[in-house]
Amino acid sequence: MPAGSSLDPIGDAAVPPVVRKAAAWSWRLLLIFGAILVLLWTVKRLEIIVVPVALATMLAALLMPAVDFLDRRGAPRGGAVALMLLSGFAVVGGILSFVVSQFIEGAPELTEQVSRSIDGVRTWLIDGPLGLSREQIERSGDAAIEALRDNQERLTSGALSTAGTVTEIVTGALLVLFTLIFLLQGGRNIYEFVTRIFPVDVRERVRDAGRAGFHSLIGYIRATFLVALVDAVGIGAGLAIMGVPLALPLASLVFLGAFIPLVGAVITGFLAVIVALIAKGLVYALITLGLIIAVQQLEGHVLQPLVMGRAVSIHPLAIVLVIAGGGVLAGIVGALLAVPALAFINSAMRVLLARDPSAEKQALDEDDGPLVKAEADEVAES
Where are the transmembrane segments (predicted)? Predict the structure, then answer.
């Protein structure tokens, strides 16, 4: 039916331009939103595959520079991959065994401190301003124990369901290992092959975008590793000097928590403050809090600007939102992978949408921190 005819009294000409533009934008945005939902649903359904592959990609970004270095020096590619994997397993295994042994040695002391703290709180409740009777306190303790017993079945079923995921964990770990081996061995060839699905006129642009995203991922992983190491050494040394129990296990938790920006450092730091409060008292807890704040300030104002350039820097609001979204979709693993994924997408989209991809890629290399620029030079030489 022709617009504006007598049979169509409300034609396009009668609709205000703002409404027409809003309608055009609305159906396009709805289509994009629907595509994103389908993508997220697919990722969620294939989580057992997507998460190991993503973790393997992050590990490949961490180990790839060392493998490339050995490869350029004449070492066989397979031997370089095997050497880095064995070295990584040795370092991680040694750290874990050391942390576990320290935890076993420090746990009795912490348990004794907790018992003393509980006795002190009980004495304060009885002799302090509240003036509670011993019968009231014992009644409250019995009520807490009874509540645990009432929920024992739920706790047991939760433990069984957790035990049921052991198979998935083992499967995911094996998938991470195999994916990591093939990415380190021939990741560039795999990427060249996969990008052949794109039309010839845009294929090189897509490849440049992927390379830029992976360079940013390398810079992010290496910089985060360095920042996490500095956090763990600084906080762990401070806790050890103050004689706080479980200083090394707490430093290890700080190291792991630093890989989740903003949130992880706060949570692990709060745990260290709680342990210091229980074991050494309020003064040491405040000193621990000041130590954590000082280390975080050093990280935020010196380390991150030094080792991360503008190409991998992300606005704090975006970090909080993607961590929250990743946590909702995939729990702790989602929160861990959210920011690296955003760093990758940020750099890749800047090259993909640029009028001059080569110039944008060069600008990204110039904006990257020293670690990323060095990696870009290594890849160019290879």
Answer: 25-43, 49-70, 82-104, 159-184, 220-244, 250-274, 281-298, 318-345
